[in-house]
Design a protein that fits this description.
The protein is an alpha+beta fold and about 350 residues long. The chain folds into 3 domains: about 120 residues, Haem NO binding associated domain (Beta-Lactamase), CATH 3.30.450; about 40 residues; about 160 residues, Alpha-Beta Plaits (2-Layer Sandwich), CATH 3.30.70.270. It has 12 helices and 13 strands. The strands form 3 sheets. A 6-stranded antiparallel sheet has the order 2-1-6-5-4-3. The protein has a 5-stranded mixed sheet with strand order 8-9-7-12-13, with helices on both faces. The protein has a two-stranded antiparallel ribbon with strand order 10-11. Strand 5 and strand 6 form a beta hairpin. Helix 8 packs antiparallel against helix 9. The termini are far apart.
């Protein structure tokens, strides 16, 4: 039980983590905060040296040694396995042959506050710990706001970068993003097939049904191209009705012809737009990196475009590989495609 002694209430108020011990080392009284720390194993009546271990100075092993260290800074910790460490100072008790030990958390106060759910009421009113805790709390709040701000800025940056590299209408990559991917593929010496697609008769849709119908058609085309390619292939819209696909690895000629044919067949399915029918097709030109000793992005784009133009000359709605252009040139007339694209 708690023993009464003069000025106990005042000491509890001024030193909420003090211990009063008798000449035998038994704890006669302790401040309210220390009682809170030891609520699961009350220490009143226990021997001080059995509750606390004096870590420094190391030669303090008895009550006599402890009283001999009057005025010195002591380092203590609980013996029950808790990690809590204390700074302390001891002074003789004028009312007995024992002493008074006053403890503090030192730099471990922040962890102790969290571990023991302490509040400002658990410290002396003039303790600088209160102000330090306010500063720590303010710093934590500021850091949390800074973290949230950084997250918002990061999200905004990601969105901005995505918007800068995406076609706003179809959600596909734009020409800028395509150029970056091309450079990366070529720098890494990755083999791929480039497919250049231009819509046939798209101008007629815009002219007769309006731009809303044209936008609808472009959105449907983007869906088809995404569905007909693999997740690691690249699909980009590079112009009004032009698209470039990068198919990872050099697809075999027969497989490439099948892919192109399947895309063209799907594009030729009439689309319904508010009751109006939109009829388009697609012309495709392809080129592979293994066609070159050293592939260059600009040359590949130019050659894919040349193959695409040959598909237009051949009557549209077909696919031409760049290496096959020469076999069609003699029998294919020049064609003005500007009016019917």
């Amino acid at each position: 039980m708690t023993l009464s002694f003069p000025h106990a209430t005042a000491m509890d108020h001024l030193m909420p983590m003090h211990v009063v011990f008798g000449p035998t080392g038994h704890i006669q009284h302790c401040g309210p905060t220390l009682q809170k720390l030891t609520a699961d194993a009350p220490i009143l009546g226990a021997r001080l040296m059995e509750v606390f271990e004096v870590c420094r100075p190391r030669n303090v092993t008895s009550i006599a040694d402890l009283l001999g260290a009057t005025g010195m800074k002591l380092h203590l910790r609980f013996r029950d396995g808790k990690n809590t460490e204390f700074k302390a100072v001891v002074a003789p008790n004028a009312q007995s042959e024992g002493g008074i030990l006053n403890l503090s958390f030192g730099i471990g106060v922040v962890e102790a506050v969290a571990d023991y759910e302490l509040t400002s009421a658990d410290f002396a009113p003039n303790d600088l710990v209160i102000e330090m805790l306010y500063l720590v709390e303010a710093k934590s709040a500021a850091m949390e706001e800074s973290r949230k701000l950084n997250q918002r800025l990061q999200s905004a940056r990601v969105i901005a970068e995505k918007e800068a590299q995406s076609d706003g209408l179809t959600g596909l990559l734009n020409r800028r993003a395509l150029d970056q991917v091309l450079d990366r593929f070529l720098d890494l010496d990755l083999p791929f097939t480039m497919m250049h697609l231009d819509l046939d008769f798209f101008k007629a849709v815009n002219d007769t049904l309006g731009h809303a119908a044209g936008d609808f058609v472009l959105g449907q085309v983007a869906t088809i191209l995404n569905e007909e390619t693999r997740s690691d292939d690249i699909v980009a819209r590079t112009g009004g009705d032009e698209f470039v696909l990068l198919l990872r690895k050099c697809t075999p000629d027969d497989k490439l012809a099948e892919i192109a044919k399947r895309i063209i067949q799907r594009l030729e399915v009439p689309l319904d737009f508010n009751g109006a029918v939109c009829n388009i097709s697609g012309s495709i030109g392809t080129i592979k990196t293994d066609f070159y000793a050293v592939p260059v992005a600009e040359q590949m784009l130019a050659d894919a475009d040349a193959a695409l133009y040959m598909s237009k000359r051949r009557g549209r709605g077909c696919h031409t590989a760049f290496q096959d252009i020469k076999k069609y040139e003699a029998d294919t007339p020049e064609l003005d495609v500007s009016a019917s694209r």
